[in-house]
Write a structure and sequence with these properties.
single chain, about 180 residues, alpha/beta, six-stranded mixed sheet, three-stranded antiparallel sheet, 5 helices, globular, binds inosinic acid
Length: about 180
């Protein structure tokens, strides 16, 4: 299926994403100046955001990745995480910024923050490109949020539906006809 056939509408354009990431990068550079910053990207959804964010941060930042799968359905996670890939290095004593694509219920993030804290990081904060508050089930605090979005299933810019559509440049809403088949 062509990308255009799956898209109902563009929610956030490529240009809006670029401008917001520049603002977040400036804020993060300011807040972490002089600190040992480790960006931890959550695979797979966050890799495009992380790639753009690290170039918007005007200081040295180390990068590592965690891969998790959660046994939910195609539209939401259950919070029961299986770790598929651990960090390559230690985060003890380091200032960790978890980089997520989207926070929905917050269950994935809660489990990840607990994991990083248990490894004695100096601090643990979160940045997410997108936040959907409608189904939030935790009081997890997200320090750097790109965009608050309505309760719609989105894809593109790294986010998938059934592993497809990650390469779309904008954040888009999926057509109902795609998932009602
Ligand atoms: P949470 O644990 O409910 O916060 O879900 C977070 C994870 O669910 C994200 O990292 C995504 O993988 C997935 N997810 C939640 N909402 C969407 C969406 O609208 N589009 C694509 N993936 C989503």
């Amino acid at each position: 299926m062509q990308h255009d056939d799956a898209i109902k509408k563009v929610l956030i354009s490529e240009e809006q994403i670029r401008n917001r990431i520049a603002e977040l990068g400036a804020q993060i550079s300011h807040d972490y100046q002089g600190k040992d910053l480790l960006l931890v990207g959550i695979l797979k959804g966050a890799w495009i955001y992380l790639a753009d964010l690290v170039r918007a941060i005007d200081m040295n930042a180390d990068v590592d990745f965690l891969a998790v799968s959660s046994y939910g359905n195609d539209f939401s996670s259950s919070g029961n995480l299986t770790f598929l890939k651990d960090l390559d290095g230690s985060c003890e004593g380091r200032h960790v910024l978890i980089v997520e694509d989207i926070v929905d219920s917050g269950l994935t993030l809660s489990a990840l923050c607990e994991l990083i804290k248990s490894r004695k990081a100096a601090s643990v904060e979160v940045t997410t490109l997108l936040s959907k508050r409608a189904h939030r089930k935790t009081d997890i605090s997200v320090k750097y949020v790109g965009f608050e979005i309505p309760d719609e299933f989105v894809l593109g810019y790294g986010l998938d539906y059934c592993q497809f559509y990650r390469g779309i440049k904008d954040i888009c809403v999926l057509k109902e006809s795609v998932y009602s088949k």
